[in-house]
Amino acid sequence: MTAKTNRTGKASKSPASALVDPVREANEPTSLLARFGPERPLGMDCGVTLDRWQIAYQTYGKLNADRSNAVLVCHALTGDQHVANTNPVTGKSGWWEVLIGPGCPIDTDRYFVICSNVIGGCLGSTGPASLDPATGKAYGLSFPLVTIRDMVRAQAVLVEHLGITSLFAVIGGSMGGMQVLQWASSYPDRVFAAVPLATAARHSAQNIAFHEVGRQAVMADPDWQGGRYLDGAKRPSKGLSVARMGAHITYLSEAALHRKFGRNLQDREARTFTFDADFQVESYLRYQGISFVERFDANSYLYLTRAMDYFDLAADHAGVLAKAFAGSKTRFCVASFTSDWLFPTADSRAIVHALNASGASVSFVELESDKGHDAFLLDEPELFATLRGFIGAAARARGLA
Amino acid sequence: MSDVRIDLSLIADMVEPGSKVLDVGCGDGALLALLASRRHVDARGIELSREGVAGCVARGLSVIQGDADTDLGDYPDDAFDYVILSQTIQATRAPRRVLENMLRIGRRAIVSFPNFGHWNIRAQLAFKGRMPVTSNLPESWHDTPNIHFCTIRDFVGLCDTLGAVTERAVALNASGSDIGVKAPWWFWNLFGQQAVFLLRRTGPASPP
Fold it and tell me: Rounded to 5 degrees, what are φ and ψ at B20?
């Protein structure tokens, strides 16, 4: 999802030459990288085991002597490991720099922050854009279907690889929040505090429907070529762009769209009586679509939307969500936003009810914002005050001075 | 601790140290903070207002945004040692159901409330013919969130109906002093400006 968007579609981009090639980035990322071989295979929910896989990540701050101050940040659908540094592909600032950095609510002077690209992603962790060691070509659709639990399994291996047995906090919004919930459920003893934001314990029928529209847009593009486009030079840019445009609407709200654009016309005095982008909102969406395809792999988009669709934490516990958190000692902070209709407050309340039923320590607040689902990525002072308080109290309880 | 409200201090004294407590309608978290610091309890809260919850979480308290009338039903039986309703029961839509839920999810319930049978309130109705406005109930009838006032006798009646046992009851007069334990109910009902009850259920948490 997009933290930084340009109102008129005229982004000031860094010179293209300074940026890296996204296809190369999928295999040789401009970030830290952990490679694993047959000695540490990754078993996946679909039944496939990856014998050779890699996970790309970034870290910020210093791990303390006790190794007790590590914070894992989980990214959303189209995010990446570049949470608090300039993104090498887009040249833009990190996607959560408002929250993570020196003196920020997640203070990199105090905490050791880790953020990794999810399995199935396209910024250096193994996914459909990675080269299949068996063929030497990109996996494409031969890559196994990924789940949220697979992503978390891979992160757990990385965390172990970094010599950390217990995370101080796991935090993320949207698909990142799903990973936070999965972490707390799969590895309760390794998560001291969990912060799932603007998320759900299962993807709703409406959200699966939106994702399906996006996938069909990608697959309807002839340049998609049954997923084998990376063998040639063409990319399914039109399809992926349309998918992004549709999805982007779901990240905003009617009020935010009205406030930003209203019915204003784009660089013109009157309607043109054509299908040109007369309205600012059309121009904005087209820009969102076009800039997205420059940085994201179309197959990866199919895989990650599918992973969200499949997510239903209660289903792994006989349909009772509270059982997913039974006996949990983790302290939770759940937050939703009033104008988020993609992951509405009711989804967060369902998580809170389950946590209460399991006796877990939980705080929950619905924050006032008209910015829709994207609010969790934006400069929301109420969110920051809540997180500062929660993380500060958790740090005191953990003995992190 | 001298600036702590007397009713909050009284509630804190009723709570066993180290217990697990839910404060329903916890406001800015003053009671929870007091319980955490003085009685070292595992303090949880529910609060209706967004500002209240954000303030509590920012203080490091475990508080969720919720409604006493609708959200208590989601908690399992005996989830807490104490469930506290401080100066809130008169603002609930269904006080009886709220109290039933409190007795179900807590091994003990503590309820404090303003006594609508206090002589000053009776006098305002009797002599002025107007709905009472007092220092601790300052809102006019059309502005008040308090929709279910009761007297101490009324509350005792509800406890009897629900089969709740009063383990301790304290009435405070207008200056905040404890009215003697030996005073009869009618005296409490006339001179108590507010009351605090420590209750427990007699039967099982939920009917079999």
Answer: -105, 120
Domain CATH code at residue A177 = 3.40.50.1820
The amino acid at A119: I
**Alpha-carbon span B64 to A336, nearest angstrom:** 12
**Distance, CA of A264 to CA of A277 (rounded, Å):** 11
Question: Taking CB atoms and an 8 Å limit, are A393 and B44 in contact across chains?
Answer: no
Q: Range of B25's domain?
A: 6-117+148-201
Contacting residues for A152 by C-beta, under 8 A, at least 6 apart: A179, A182, A183, A186, A187
Collect all residues of chain B within an 8 Å Cβ-Cβ radius of residue A339.
Answer: none
Give tens-digit pLDDT for B15-36.
999 999 999 999 999 999 999 9
ipTM of the complex: 0.84
Cα A244 to the center of its chain, rounded Å = 14
Sign of the Cα torsion A71, A72, A78, A84 reads: positive
DSSP A118: P
Other C-beta atoms lying within 10 Å of the C-beta of residue A266: 17
Chain centroid to CA A103 = 23
Contacts of residue A396 in chain B, CB cutoff 8 Å?
Answer: 60
CB contact under 8 A, A331 and B65: no
Look up the domain containing A361 and give its range.
Answer: 16-203+317-398
Give mean pLDDT, residues A269-280. Answer: 95
pLDDT tens profile A249-274: 999 999 999 999 999 999 999 999 99
Residue B30 inside a domain? The answer is: yes
CB contact at 8 A, A1 and A374: yes
Contact: A366, B75; criterion CB under 8 Å = no
Asked whether the beta carbons of A181 and A194 are under 8 A apart, the reply is yes
Which CATH number covers residue B65? 3.40.50.150
8 Å CB contact of A361 and B62: yes
Residue B99 has pLDDT above 60, yes or no: yes
Nearest CA in chain B to A364: B64
Nearest residue to B88 (alpha-carbon basis) of B107, B105, B113: B113
Contact by Cβ (8 Å): A309, A211? yes
- Tell me the pLDDT of chain B averaged across its residues: 92
* Mutation site for B-interface testing, chosen from A363, A364, A388 by largest number of B Cβ within 10 Å: A363
Q: In chain A, how many domains are there?
A: 1
Distance CA A299, CA B7 (A): 63
- Catalytic residue, from A278, A340, A347, A374: name it: A340
Distances (CA, A) of A252 to A77, A247, A248, A266, A287: 15, 9, 7, 20, 15
Is B129 domain-assigned?
no
Is residue A276 one of the residues assigned to a domain?
Answer: no
B122 part of a folded domain:
no
Burial of B119 (0-12, 13-18, 19+ CB in 10 A): middle
Number of domains comprising chain B: 1
Is residue A172, in this structure, part of any structural domain at all? yes
Tokens 């590895």, residue located: A187
Location of structure tokens 């013109």: A268
Set A116, A174, A283, A369: catalytic member = A174
User: How is residue A304 written in tokens?
Assistant: 């990650």
Residue B137 lies in a domain: no
When CB atoms are compared, the residue of B42, B60, B65 closest to A366 is B65
